[in-house]
Design goal:
By secondary structure, this protein is an alpha/beta fold. The chain has a single domain, classed as Rossmann fold (3-Layer(aba) Sandwich), CATH 3.40.50. It is 55% helix and 14% strand. The protein contains eight helices and five strands; from the N terminus they run E-H-H-E-H-H-E-H-H-H-E-H-E. A five-stranded parallel β-sheet has the order 3-2-1-4-5. Helix 8 links the parallel strand 4 and strand 5. Helix 1 packs across helix 2, helix 1 packs across helix 3 and helix 5 crosses helix 7. 40% of the residues are buried.
Length: 129
């Protein structure tokens, strides 16, 4: 069964942070990610001084399937705002949750607020740390 990675989970793996072992296991089996969260990871790497070329190479080496953020996911993510607002979830967070909801996937994340928000949108979350 596929596991969906939030940007915080993939960053933990790329930056050798706590929780990276769980993410490495998911990547070794069958991990997927939203294109929105891929953009977040790329942004953070470049913001923190990695060249765009090196960031792209690091991401290209990972066998993670990227799902496009389509119109249906955009509507789902937008609709989640009311339910997730009190947890401070971003559009990227909701894009990930919308994909998890549609594909019925377990989500790996380091974001503790998701543990409270996920049940309200019918998603299962596993914290990596």
């Amino acid at each position: 069964m596929s596991v969906l990675l939030d940007s915080s989970a993939l960053l933990a793996r790329l930056l050798n942070e706590p929780g990276q072992d769980l993410v490495a296991e998911a990547i070794a089996s069958d991990a997927v990610m939203s294109s929105v969260n891929l953009a977040e990871v790329m942004t953070i790497l470049v913001r923190d001084g990695v060249s765009p070329k090196d960031a792209e190479l690091a991401l290209a080496r990972l066998p993670v399937t990227i799902h496009a953020f389509d119109e249906a996911l955009a509507r789902q993510a937008g609709a989640m705002f009311v339910v997730t607002r009190k947890f401070g979830l971003s559009l990227g967070d909701r894009a990930c949750l919308a994909l998890a909801q549609r594909e019925k996937l377990l989500v790996l994340t380091a974001d503790r607020a998701w543990a409270q928000a996920a049940p309200l949108v019918g998603v299962t979350v596993k914290l990596i740390r």
